[in-house]
Amino acid sequence: MDATAKPLELSDAELTDEAKRLVGEFALLKPSLTAAAVGAALVTDAGHLYTGINLDLACGIGFCAEHSAVAEMLKHRETCVRRIVAVDDERVVAPCGRCRELLVQIDRRNMECVVLMPGGERRTLRQLLPEAWLEHLLVEGKRA
Ligand SMILES: [Zn+2]
């Protein structure tokens, strides 16, 4: 479990380091089927840290590192992400569209989640996901 008893106040660099230490791609059934080419780390509004690695398999099976970090968070019944970052073995990588949607669909407050981007940029999910699918559900007070 990555969640700590007391809230964390990690800098962007420290959060990025948490993701970096998970990166170390290794082969599974065959060399092209791998895990841990990408690591992700997120901090929730409660100040807890959750991390994940990607899984890259054949036939579209697998998931992004952000997905496994989110799953780890959900295991602890938390849904609101304050900041998130993903890295490969060289740099910070931007979240794919599916990860952007994933974060928003678990909690509308994640539209304000800060995403650490390549080059040291910071963006909110609202900036990265304009005119989001299910936008009508993202308005405070509305539920499907
Ligand atoms: Zn993704």
Description:
With 144 residues, the chain is of the alpha+beta class. The protein contains four helices and eight strands, in the order αββββαββαββα. The chain has helices at 12-20, 65-75, 97-106, 125-128, and strands spanning 26-27, 34-44, 49-56, 62-63, 81-87, 92-93, 114-116, 122-124. Strands 1, 2, 3, 4, 5, 6, 7 and 8 form an eight-stranded mixed beta sheet that branches. The chain is globular and about 45 Å long. The mean pLDDT is 92. Bound molecules: zinc ion. Zinc ion (ZN) binds at residues 64, 66, 95-96, 98-99.
Essential attributes:
144 residues, alpha+beta, eight-stranded mixed beta sheet, 8 strands, 26% strand, binds zinc ion
Q: How much helix is in the residues? A: 10-25%
Care to count the β-strands?
A: 8
H/E order of the elements?
A: HEEEEHEEHEEH
Shape: globular
User: Helical stretch count?
Assistant: 4
Q: Rg to the nearest angstrom?
A: 15 Å
Return residue spans where pLDDT drops below 50 for at least 5 consecutive residues.
Answer: none
SS-based class: alpha+beta
Mean pLDDT: 92
Bound molecules: zinc ion
Topology, element by element:
Elements: H1 12-20, E1 26-27, E2 34-44, E3 49-56, E4 62-63, H2 65-75, E5 81-87, E6 92-93, H3 97-106, E7 114-116, E8 122-124, H4 125-128
Parallel strand pairs: 5-7
Antiparallel strand pairs: 1-2, 2-3, 2-5, 3-4, 5-6, 7-8
Bound molecules: zinc ion.
Zinc ion binds next to helix 3.
Write a brief caption for the model.
It contains four helices and eight strands. Strands 1, 2, 3, 4, 5, 6, 7 and 8 form an eight-stranded mixed beta sheet that branches. The protein is globular.
